[in-house]
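__Protein archive entry__

___
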Amino acid sequence: MKNSKIQKLAKALRSFSPQPARAILAGEAIIKLDNKDLTFTSKKELLECIRSHSDQSVLMNNLKKWIITQLNTVSEKDLFSILNLLANYSLKEVFNALNYFLISFPNTSKAYYNDGSATGLDLLTTELAEVRKDDKVLDPSSGINGAWLELLKNNPNQNMTVQELNEIDAEFAYLNTKILGATNCIVYQGDTLSDPKYTQDGNLQLFDKIVTFPPINARISKDAIIENRFNRFRYGDITYTKGESAFISNAISSLNQTGKAVIVVSDGPLFQGGKVASFRKFLVDHDLIETVIALPSSLLSYSIIPINILIINKNKTDSKGQIQFINANQNEWYQTDKHGKRILSTLGIQKIVELYHSRASVEGKSAIFANTDYKGTLGIKQYILPSEVQLDNSTYHINRSALQNLNTVQLQELVNIKRGYNVTRRNEDKKGRYLTAKVTDITTDHHINDSNLTRINIKTNAESYLIENNDILISTRGTIGKVAFVNNIKQCTVPNANLAILRVKSSKLNTVNMIWLMLYLASPLGQFMIQQVATGTAISTISTKDLGKIPIPVLPLEAQNKAVQQFQTVQAKLNAEKAALQKKIEANQEELYSSMNITKVLRKENTEN
């Protein structure tokens, strides 16, 4: 449908809330499905036509009841004004308009909608799945539409099974299949994890291809995992608060012996620790992971969260014992709209698919690693070094050869690392024994602004959390990589949990200058190294374990001392010149203000000691 036509309809429906607007479109679709050229003289006749629609399946009947309930809230005048407009729309155009409104105004009961048809995500996942006409395809968490619907658009006869938890979403999904004339598609409603409907003779049906976008970080039913119907959760312990692993496990169990699953996931399943890490290692050890594709952030209509495509393949003929990584976050592979949301370009989709098929290693874009080289994470940054990086609004090009030849040691070899205390408002006390330092207390010149630190009391032993002179503080959550050197602590100060304390090991006192180390961590290279170990979806974090892996250049202590001394000497001179220049600037302003007689009205206090 042309955008102008959708815009015209959107303007006409603007006075309605989302539910009645969708009901009007769905009702019109049902009427057009019967291919009857009817004229209605009243709302009652219209509702009866919808009620008597020839499809009497459970999903359709439930949808008709919902539509009628919603239309009863619309006045007859308003209803027929829209229906008269829709009379000029074909069934296909009503289908496009309906799906536009379903995506633009999602149900509040379900947070994870994305217009994959508009962003290119649906097209990309279907091409990666390589679905043949005779393939049996499953989407066990289908939503109203998605890649599965894209496949049916291309082939209405595709053998397709979908299941959706939300009742009204499943009903709309069913309506979509009817509008497309899908002849071999089954839509189920229910909880896939606790009650998969796609069974036959008491056994789980198996499929050639699975293309799915399960809910992100959803809490799942503990009973479903404990009951473990059909032994689908046999690849490791599943955590109930991070359900993506359960959906991945379910997808693998629903594949036949040569099947392939294309699953859209957040960063979480790729790097999270604990049970998720054990589950991930099982998949690597059993050679189930074929490809990991990191997509640009802001590809979803509702979030800036970055997403990835995880390809599971039980028939890795040309890639046994290997995992392919593709970094699709390339500037020329996506476009950004005026709202900051990103859309995969035709070129981007083409390049991703080409890399997937060719399995070529391309600098900054793709790489192949043996399963034995697995680094405990599937995060793309651990396997593909970018060709350039953005730091402080500047672009830095990376010399890979120089970086690889850099003589380094891991940070954990030089310092002990301890995370700060989890300070909450309950700890705050104006008469508290301790002060607490936050990320916002770190100044631009890498010191702690101790003039306004909050006083706290904590019940646990605070001694192990107290910072000392010669420590380094580094932010590890949210705004990561802010660093400060501690050199003038006058009171007992505890950093909060978003900061980590770096304290030189006693055995390394004669090998590292902590000011030099702090300046390195604050440098562009240090900040790049910090970014490389950061993980997270909406909020970046660095574990103390990963922080310890940051490479630090090896430099003799004498050279470190010399570099620090030279820097500080020059910096002190520049600061003095800056202060003198600032005074001249202020004097010039005062002269201007005096000429305006401003100084007679407003007299500036002298705050200098």
